What does this fold into?
Amino acid sequence: MKNPSRKTVPMKAALIIAAMAVSGAAQAATQQEAEAALKDAKASEAEAAKLTNRWVPTERALKTAQKALDAGKWDEAAAQATEAKALAEVSIQQAKEQMTAWHDAVIH
Amino acid sequence: MKSTPILLAALLTVAGITSWVMDEGHAAASANSTTPEQDMQAFQRYFKQRFPNVKFPDFANGPYAVNAEMRKQWEEIMQFPPYDFAVDEGKTAFETPFKNGKTYGDCFPNKGIGVRQTFPYFDTKTGEVVTLDLAINRCRAENGEKPLPYQTGVMASLTAYMSQTSRGKPFDIKIPDDPRARAAYEAGKQYFYSRHGQLNFSCASCHVTASGQRLRGDILAPALGILASFPIYRSDWGSMGTIDRRFTSCSAQMRAEPLPPQDPTYRDLEYFLSYMSNGVPIAGPGTRP
It folds into this structure.
């Protein structure tokens, strides 16, 4: 069995960078942009769900985005949707990688 | 909207994962070439070597088997086991007839007494893994009763009582000669070793690699025998909880959206873990920090 802890560093670093990036991502978004961003994020999360790998923060960001959209807060909605999209994409990538990578952790 | 930082983050993410896969993915070879029996022998050998001072049956007691300080606290707690009330409630529920006059006992071999160690089993008629909890709710459905919530309450009490009647009986999980059973076993195995959630943890990260070590205030239980004490009274919960409750809370702790209780994936996971623990005696109900 290999040391799985080695795998966590790139993922963590990427997530931290993604979180930092999205914090300033949306400025002066229009309603159309916010709606498109949310639709895009939901599509990615649906793909993550098919892979049985939805993440808690993705769901939270989607809900916050929807709430902001309903309240007419386009900037916030777009920012949260963008964050949800980024998280969902990483969760999809994780699930796809784990389809084979899990073998490395098996006790032999 | 500013898109550059997002693109940068996405590129770094992909780059990070790609390097991770190139580093580790080459050995993704023959995990399916081993039989369940071979898996079990390797699994049990690993934990015996990791914890050479733990007697095999004691793996049923999770963190208390591997940490002397916690064991001392546990022994004091066990002077007045916090799950006793649940066992009493479960016995009453178990023996109370349904509206049609039948009881839970009518749904199980040996009237449901001393059978916990044979769950989960693979039902070759329906082609699925059947846990004790699922069997209880199916028994209710067959007798015109509404299903019980899976994570706590009466379900936990019923399984507490049924587990107590099996105490000391070693896990005796079978994998019938049926490709669907083997597939369910392999699916449970894959889930156990696969990383999920934002924290990029697998079940094995905590209960194999870090078993016996501290995670904040907890001692991580070895995966061997980890289900033998369920259902449990958990101080952190302040109440009883079933295996479903533990699985869903583990998922949430990894920042993965939990699956619904008794989702086929969780049932397959229980099947795999229980098979790996064959020979470990049932010790449920139990208590945990």
